[in-house]
Amino acid sequence: MSHAASLLVVEDEPKIARLMADYLTSHGFEVTTLGHGDEVMPWLEQHSPALVLLDIMLPGKDGLTLSREIRQLWPSIAIIMVTAKVEEVDRLLGLELGADDYICKPFSPREVVARVKAVLRRSQAAAEAPSEVQNAPVVLNEDGWQALAHGQDLGLTAVEFQLLRVMMQAPGRIFSREQLMDHMYRDNRIVSERTVDSHIKKLRKKIHEALPELEIIRSVYGVGYKYQPEG
């Protein structure tokens, strides 16, 4: 990136917040830290970070509530949730939080930097890619990193946008879950096929709310998914 990306770290444990901030700053990011959930929304009204690292357990407004509110008001801000419970991740994936990734404590600062860079890289690639299929039921605004149905912003997360974009580039082509995972997570992490299904479910729900008469993402039993704008 040509300029330092602005990050917000929301973490109520001062040592962890300071460690994350120091490591991210040393890798070229501009970092602000907040320790109380009630401080987040007022701060975001005055600033526009590229990404928020958001702890779930916070004093005041909790991370789950904040994630929903951030995604509703500022859909272009990437969100990485931080949780102390590994077993919580599957539950989080099933919620309408709109997060782009998850990190489990304890973590290494190096892992945090790698996850942040990966999420920002995916969002930047999506914004810079050429726009496709302008007459489709859903139109992609690559510069604004938005998917529009009848001019209505669907409010997709980075992963949802990337999934839709990949399928829209090849209408009718069937993508396996493994192929979709390769596009979602280019850092070769190991994720379950349920993760793809969870993101597809959320993506479908958002499209259905805007286009209830159409089913443009189809399941192909035992194989995967495809984008089918017609018929």
From TrEMBL:
<dbReference type="GO" id="GO:0005829">
    <property type="term" value="C:cytosol"/>
</dbReference>
<keyword id="KW-0902">Two-component regulatory system</keyword>
<keyword id="KW-0597">Phosphoprotein</keyword>
<dbReference type="InterPro" id="IPR011006">
    <property type="entry name" value="CheY-like_superfamily"/>
</dbReference>
<dbReference type="Pfam" id="PF00072">
    <property type="entry name" value="Response_reg"/>
</dbReference>
<feature type="domain" description="Response regulatory">
    <location>
        <begin position="6"/>
        <end position="120"/>
    </location>
</feature>
<feature type="domain" description="OmpR/PhoB-type">
    <location>
        <begin position="130"/>
        <end position="229"/>
    </location>
</feature>
<dbReference type="InterPro" id="IPR039420">
    <property type="entry name" value="WalR-like"/>
</dbReference>
<keyword id="KW-0238">DNA-binding</keyword>
<dbReference type="InterPro" id="IPR001867">
    <property type="entry name" value="OmpR/PhoB-type_DNA-bd"/>
</dbReference>
<keyword id="KW-0805">Transcription regulation</keyword>
<dbReference type="GO" id="GO:0006355">
    <property type="term" value="P:regulation of DNA-templated transcription"/>
</dbReference>
<dbReference type="GO" id="GO:0000156">
    <property type="term" value="F:phosphorelay response regulator activity"/>
</dbReference>
<dbReference type="GO" id="GO:0000976">
    <property type="term" value="F:transcription cis-regulatory region binding"/>
</dbReference>
<protein>
    <submittedName>
        <fullName>Two-component system response regulator BaeR</fullName>
    </submittedName>
</protein>
<dbReference type="InterPro" id="IPR001789">
    <property type="entry name" value="Sig_transdc_resp-reg_receiver"/>
</dbReference>
<feature type="modified residue" description="4-aspartylphosphate">
    <location>
        <position position="55"/>
    </location>
</feature>
<dbReference type="GO" id="GO:0032993">
    <property type="term" value="C:protein-DNA complex"/>
</dbReference>
<dbReference type="Pfam" id="PF00486">
    <property type="entry name" value="Trans_reg_C"/>
</dbReference>
<keyword id="KW-0804">Transcription</keyword>
<feature type="DNA-binding region" description="OmpR/PhoB-type">
    <location>
        <begin position="130"/>
        <end position="229"/>
    </location>
</feature>
<dbReference type="InterPro" id="IPR036388">
    <property type="entry name" value="WH-like_DNA-bd_sf"/>
</dbReference>
